[in-house]
Amino acid sequence: MQIILLAVGIYYTLMLVRGTRGWSVVIGFLLLMALTLIAGALHLEVVRWLMERFFAFSAIAILVIFQPELRRMLSELGNLPLFYTAREARENIEVIIQSVERLAEVKIGALIALEQAIQLTDVVESGIVIDCEATPEMLETIFFPNNAIHDGGVIIRGDRIAFAACIFPLTQRQDLSKSLGTRHRAAIGLTEETDAVVVVVSEETGLISHAHKGQLVRGVSNEELRAFLTSVLVKGGKPPKAVEWARKWAGTRNLPRTAAVQKAESK
User: Quick check: 166 and 186 in contact, CB under 8 A?
Assistant: First the structure.
């Protein structure tokens, strides 16, 4: 049982940091661990001593480097939606679908963040308080090019537009395509530090994209976006991957599942 719990913990941790800024750090730590094992096997006492001293002080470094990922993990563990029903979540999803569909048709850029457990006001640099009901018409008005607050992102909290003209943190990843614009990089950056879901409409191509946990999927259809948002935002739907994996180990293979979301090819 202990082995299963440890395996699930390691798997969930790797899935949490995969594709984020901390992933390269994880690879570095694994290489250093491998070097320590090799030094021990070859009786390289000086190298082994240095590696042991390094790992002795690495706990503080881990807390600093993986602070966004740790905060997101703790927020997910403590996220108990008592008052936000599945029906309300589905209604809000339809508002987002209708909004981005209209904006994509006329190639109006949009950046919409759906807040979950982590307060997004802690990570955005600015924003104008809106506090109104989230409707397709209101979102279209905000992102209309001649509007004074069309630049930046919108934060949706529940069924209300909380803030507009927000500046999201840009991702620092170096492995991304050079064709990605500021909106897409801001979407990745915000989801690297929080548990938010971000929907993007490209001003140049009209393509719809979504980002979550530092992963960006570009060029999705309305149905693909609806399936993705439902799997993330409708509580009681698809369980976390680590839970599914643990259930397989326990032999409970007949539990209900939601349909998998296929990733669209990058365009």
Answer: no
DSSP string, 105-174: HTT--EEEEE--SS-GGGT-S--EEEEEE--HHHHHHHHSTTSTT-SSEEEEETTEEEEEEE-PPPP--S
Name, in order, each residue with C-beta under 8 angstroms of 230's C-beta and a sequence gap of 6 or more: 89, 90, 93, 237, 258
Among residues 101, 93, 181, the alpha carbon closest in space to that of 140 is found at 101
- Write the pLDDT tens digit of every residue in 40-75: 788 777 777 777 777 666 667 666 666 666 665 665
Token code pair at residue 80: 């108990």
* Phi–psi pair at 50, nearest 5 degrees: -65, -40
How do residues 133-191 score in pLDDT, each as one tens digit? 999 999 999 999 988 888 899 999 988 999 999 999 999 888 888 888 999 999 999 99
Q: Which amino acid is at 124?
A: V
Q: Could you tell me the pTM of the whole model?
A: 0.61
pLDDT at 206: 93
DSSP conformation letters of 213-250: TTEEE-S--HHHHHHHHHHHHSTTSSPPHHHHHHHHHH
Sign of CA dihedral 67, 213, 197, 173: positive
Q: Are the C-beta atoms of 113 and 86 separated by less than 8 Å? A: no
Measured CA to CA in angstroms, residue 32 lies from 6, 36, 45 at distances of: 21, 6, 15
